[in-house]
Structure formats: C-alpha cells, structure tokens
Design brief:
With 262 residues, the protein is α+β, with helices and mostly antiparallel strands. It folds into 2 domains: 94 residues, Immunoglobulin-like; 140 residues, C8orf32 fold. It contains 5 helices and 15 strands.
C-alpha cells in the first residue's frame, strides 16, 4: 500500500518562542520532509525522539508569521512501534484526559462478561453509538468524563472515552495521533490502542477511516502526550491548518478484526 500525507500550519508568534512540533510520522525510514519558514528563511530544526518512536522537532522562532510544511510518501509497511514491558503498567493508570478511576463503575456495568475481541468491539460500538461526532463541540481541557456527560465530541474525545473504559477493565490502552487516509472531514486523527492477545490493537470508535491505512505520528497516555503543536516561551496562535492523507486503496474495516498499527 502506498500512502501519502501532507500538513501545513500557519502560525503567528507574538514574541520569540520555541515550537515543539509533532507532525512527522514515527520511525520514518522513507521519503519525508519538514520545513519551517519565517521571513523567507528556513529555520533550523532539532529532532528529538519521544516514546514509541515519535519524532518531535524543536524550532526557535522570532516574532511574526511562521509556516510549517510536512510531507511524506511511503510505500509498504512501517516498522513496528517501539514497546517496553513498562507499557502494560503505564497504560493501565488513570491520566489527565482518561479518568478510568471515575468511570470504573460504568465500565463494569456496561461491559460485564466481555473479553478479548468482544470487549474491544463492545466498547468501540458503545462509544460510537452513544456519542455524536460534532466538530468544535469540545474544549481542549475536556476529558472522558465530560465527553460522556455531553455525549458529543471529536476523535480525541472518542479515543479518550474508549481508553478510560478499557483501563477501568484492566486492559492497557493508549492514544495514538495519526494521519488517516479516507478520513472525512480531513484532519489530524486520534485513535486508541488496546493491549489484548499480547499485542497492541487499534480501536477507533468513530469508524471514520480504515484502520489499516493509518500512519502513526505519536503515542502516549492521552492527548497531552500527542499534541501536534506545543510551545515554550512566547505566545503562538494557530491561524490556519491544512491536513491531507491518501492511500492507493481503502480496505474494508471489520470492527471485529484485530488490526495492528505499525
């Protein structure tokens, strides 16, 4: 399968600042490029490896407009994500946006008796049916509890609720930011990964894109670990964003099938 992705961020730095970008695919052993331009000059970038092979790019910018442009063109499979024994412990714990301790009673009631494939399918279907996908309906600080109460959100909200339920049922789960060919509306996408059957399996309660086409960007406890942009120092505003991802084929996606994300 050949996959291509593109993202462009138009920013304004209101004073000198440091950008931390998480837009490059993880483990890139392929043709990709990242440029950060300001005032007609390409700025120097430092690549820092995060957990599970995520590639962060750190850039110092001055005050004024900044343009970030990323492109990747890849044929074939990506390398497996880096995993460590601590992961099955780390991703059982409650986190900022995945309050599994609070949602435990609901999880144990709604999904009693389910394990393995059936549990992942059950949680995915329940969240997909209970929530409405409404762009702009959630705030950056909303976690799984607020999502459950409001019954609406976007991809990260769906993923946070899935993760919280699974952790409450003693299934390690984590969030992954991805490029998603077939996604509509197109954007950066977020899905959950659950550790079942001695492997990490993708769970996407939105069912908006085939899981086999996804390209991993970053992996962590929740959205606090996977934001496409964070800053240090001065204030930076996002003026415009464009994301595109395509594949030469869009396979069918059976929610009952275990799918691994490289």
């Amino acid at each position: 399968m050949r996959r291509q992705a593109y993202s462009n961020l138009q920013l304004t730095a209101h004073s000198p600042a440091t950008l931390i970008l998480s837009v490059a695919v993880a483990h890139a052993d392929t043709i990709d490029s990242l440029s950060v331009m300001q005032g007609g000059t390409e700025l120097e970038k430092t690549e820092v490896l995060d957990q599970h092979g995520a590639r962060l790019h750190v850039v110092d910018v001055g005050a004024g407009p900044v343009s970030v442009d990323y492109r990747v063109d890849h044929a074939g499979a990506f390398p497996e994500a880096i995993s460590e024994p601590i992961d099955v412990i780390r991703y059982l714990r409650p986190s900022r946006y995945c309050e599994s301790d609070t949602l435990g009673p609901i999880a144990r009631t709604e999904f009693a008796g389910l394990t393995g494939h059936d549990l992942l399918a059950g949680v995915s279907s329940w969240v997909g049916q209970q929530l409405s996908y409404v762009p702009g309906s959630s705030q950056p600080t909303d976690g799984a509890v607020n999502t459950l109460l409001s019954r609406r959100g976007v991809c990260r909200d769906y993923a946070h609720l899935v993760i919280a339920f699974l952790r409450a049922l003693d299934v390690p789960a984590r969030l992954v930011s991805v490029y998603a060919p077939g996604l509509s509306p197109m954007d950066f996408h977020a899905v959950a990964e659950a550790y079942v059957g001695d492997q990490w399996n993708v769970v996407d309660a939105t069912t908006l894109a085939p899981r086999k086409t996804l390209m991993r960007i970053a992996t962590g406890r929740d959205a606090s670990d996977t934001a496409f942009l964070s800053t240090r120092g001065g204030a930076v505003s996002l003026d415009n964003m464009e994301v595109s991802a395509v594949a030469d084929m869009l396979p069918d996606d059976d929610v009952l099938e275990f799918v691994r994300l490289a």
